[in-house]
């Protein structure tokens, strides 16, 4: 499927503000890809599709997690996490995406994981810092660009974990393992 068709189909599935977020993630992800020598077309496709399942039916997502043998632990955590792995499934089955790195960038965009590829990091970071995001500290995260992708990713996952802990929300193990991976590398 060509990219303009992908964008049209994503637009149909999302409310306007979420679609604007997707456009912001595309812009930020492509800029990061160019800066860090990752193929910009992969970043663009992953960004277009990263939230494709954000408004999918919960029971349907649950059935896909089970039938596709995804991590059963997902079902014990907040349903907000489900749109990422289910989005990768939709990208493959409805949008014809075959590139494993693109599919993993969608799959892990919410939690991160240990040993992320550069494309996965770019989508995770772009999702957090795209121009429509306004939270306290977002500008500091944006400015870490000049310190490299790993510094940005470590600060981003740390921000998410600290946010979740401050709200007494459970943190999914992949997020903790993602952070631990950067800490142990030093
Ligand atoms: O889909 P978006 O809103 O663009 O952003 P996202 O997919 O990164 O995150 C969706 C939500 O998931 C957000 O409210 C934060 C939450 N989240 C991220 N990591 C974890 C998490 N929630 C839990 N419970 N555990 C996590 O590790
Ligand atoms: Fe998301
Ligand atoms: Fe995110
Ligand atoms: Fe998003």
Automatic annotation (TrEMBL):
UniProtKB keywords: Hydrolase, Iron, Metal-binding, Nucleotide-binding
Keyword Oxidoreductase: no
SMART domains, per the entry: HDc
Enzyme Commission number, as recorded: 3.6.1.41
First-tier enzyme category under EC: hydrolase
InterPro entries associated with the record: Diverse_Catalytic_Enzymes (IPR051094), HD/PDEase_dom (IPR003607), HD_domain (IPR006674), HDIG_dom (IPR006675), YqeK (IPR005249)
GO molecular function: bis(5'-nucleosyl)-tetraphosphatase (symmetrical) activity
Stated name of the protein: bis(5'-nucleosyl)-tetraphosphatase (symmetrical)
Native species: Planococcus liqunii
Classification of source organism: Bacteria, Bacillati, Bacillota, Bacilli, Bacillales
């Amino acid at each position: 499927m060509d990219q303009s068709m992908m964008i049209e189909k994503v637009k149909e599935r999302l409310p306007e503000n979420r679609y604007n977020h997707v456009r912001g993630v595309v812009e930020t992800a492509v800029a990061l890809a160019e800066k860090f020598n990752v193929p910009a077309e992969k970043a663009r496709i992953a960004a277009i599709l990263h939230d494709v399942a954000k408004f999918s039916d919960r029971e349907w997502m649950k059935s896909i997690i089970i039938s596709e043998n995804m991590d059963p632990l997902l079902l014990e955590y907040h349903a907000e996490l489900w749109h990422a792995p289910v989005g990768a499934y939709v990208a493959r089955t409805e949008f014809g995406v075959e590139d494993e790195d693109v599919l993993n960038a969608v799959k892990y965009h919410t939690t991160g994981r240990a040993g992320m590829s550069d494309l996965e990091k770019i989508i995770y970071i772009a999702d957090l810092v795209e121009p429509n995001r306004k939270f306290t500290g977002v500008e500091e995260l944006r400015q870490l660009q000049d310190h490299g992708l790993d510094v940005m990713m470590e600060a981003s996952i740390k921000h998410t974990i600290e946010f979740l802990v401050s709200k007494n929300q459970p943190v999914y193990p992949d997020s903790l393992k993602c952070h631990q991976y950067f800490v142990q590398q030093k």
